[in-house]
């Protein structure tokens, strides 16, 4: 039996859950999320005990794999509508800066023109200063995906460490070429 899939999910009082077949809806103070799950796993909602449980129909390899996955996705949904998820990015480099302009994020990161990244619905993007970006939302996958898109505009390079990186990310540095006079 899956160690993760076996664990029940404790649901706080302020969260509403509805299960209809393979569709699970989670509504909380920070928003609402919906997800459909495969028929190999069943989701049971105990409203009295405020517990969400995931069971699988058989011991087929696919059902075993989906058991823990489904439980983890449901736990992420419950945590997302109660606490939310946040990713912070920092821009490292001379003249690198970010600005929020309407429904887009403008990134000046060493290209001839600023790069514009459209802000997705459901996410709150803040630029507290010119070199930091904060992405907040209730959907863990959406927050991580948008942070990865912003980072992909100018990933950190290994020689000087310039680029867009996650806050606290360690960039492994390489030694550049050295020139020795007299060896030619």
Structure overview:
With 184 residues, this protein is an alpha+beta fold. The protein has two domains: 80 residues, Ribosomal protein L6 (Outer Surface Protein A, domain 3), CATH 3.90.930; 82 residues, Outer Surface Protein A, domain 3 (Alpha-Beta Complex). It is 21% helix and 38% strand. The chain is built from three helices and 13 strands; from the N terminus they run αββββββαββββββαβ. Strands 11-12-7-13 form a four-stranded antiparallel β-sheet, with helices on one face. A hairpin with a 2-residue loop joins strand 2 and strand 3. The model has no long low-confidence stretch (mean pLDDT 92).
Short structural description:
The chain is of the alpha+beta class and 184 residues long. It is 21% helix and 38% strand.
Number of helices: 3
- Unreliably modeled segments: none
Strand content: 35-45%
Query: Which structural class do the helices and strands define?
Result: alpha+beta
Mean pLDDT: 92
Question: And the CATH topology of the largest domain?
Answer: Outer Surface Protein A, domain 3
Q: Main sheet: which strands, in order across?
A: 11-12-7-13
Head-to-tail CA distance between termini? 66 Å
Quickly name the level 1 CATH class of the largest domain. Alpha Beta
Name given to the CATH homologous superfamily of the largest domain: Ribosomal protein L6
How many structural domains does the protein architecture include?
A: 2
Largest sheet: 4 strands, antiparallel
CATH 2nd-level architecture of the largest domain: Alpha-Beta Complex
Oligomeric status of the shown chains? single chain
Rg from C-alpha positions? 22 Å
